[in-house]
Specification:
This protein is α/β, with parallel strands linked by helices. It has 2 domains: 110 residues, no CATH class; 218 residues, Alpha-Beta Complex (Spore Coat Polysaccharide Biosynthesis Protein SpsA, Chain A), CATH 3.90.550.10. The protein contains 13 helices and 11 strands. The protein has a 7-stranded mixed sheet with strand order 3-2-1-4-7-5-8.
Length: 375
Amino acid sequence: MLDGIAQGVLALTLAAHGVSAGLAALRCRTQKGAVPAFPGSPPVTIIRPVCGVEPNDAVTLGSTFALDYPDLRLLFCCDRADDPAVRLVQALIDRHPHVRAELLIGRDPLTSNPKLNNLLKAWPRIETDWVILADSNVEMPTDYVQRLLVQWQPDTGVLCAPPVGARPQDLAGEIECAFLNTYQARWQYASDSVGFGFAQGKTMMFRTRTLAQAGGLVALGEEVAEDAAATKVVRRMGLKAHLVDRPFNQPLGPRTLRQVWDRQARWARLRRMTFPRLFALEVLTSGLLPLALALVVADIADAPTAAIAIGTAGLWYGTEMMLAAVSGWHLSWRMPAALMARDLLLPVIWIQAWFIDSFDWRGNRISDEEPLSQH
């Protein structure tokens, strides 16, 4: 009986893995050619928060000025005039005088979310019916705006794109790609494909009137993370969070294992704080579960353990590598090791998320014990 249960759960786990990868591949597969701007394209505002300078910021922020869209307004937000990001953004603005761009300095400490507080000053400056919030480390293709607009649906409250790690320069970067791409993005697209989408804060597009009806940008301070708040806000309005097909790159460059750990641990705590029931299931999504079940089946059936384990691992990680290939995501000879390292880290990150209630974000201490509405 135990053998039958183990075999059944193993089959179910492998099937869920394959289905999630298939659903993600349908949404993320590469396509030729850029999406053109259609006649009468509406004016759009893009707001990008900046804080400090990272190695790829000149590329990612610079991509905002290369967008092929006819009616675009850019608002960059920074807390302090002495932040090194100010010089970079101002240089980009000066270099592209034909682009309607403005740098806003200051901070409105109305919520416990430091990034959102940085963005709030842009709210009165929005004059368009469409607004996009985009993190500074998102690299925008020239048809970025068009790809978002063409996928807006009647029931959409917020349209998002999860980050896809690109151009890692070391093993730590490869591990981060393993987290971002064939794990997190895969599950997000699978969930969205079956009607259970969640917002992702890297890119979020709204209709300005929808945000205004919800209370403005400050409404996204209801939760510790603005994307979790966006998901709950639009659902209360009878709308949904959807994901755009073919998500956008986040160049990684050099990484350290500590940076990868800190980032993934922070996001895990955010997910635990905002959607604890769903987060409780995450520990079952790594490759460790099917490998453990395969070993149980092999032991009970007196089958060759090594062959069963290798076959299961090959099927599990081979599926993820096929998804990366179909989607045009980062793929290298180091990817199998990165995928296995990720799965070893996942349960450790999951456990610590239940016992640590706060974290640092760019020098700001954030805790789920603090109220995240206006205070």
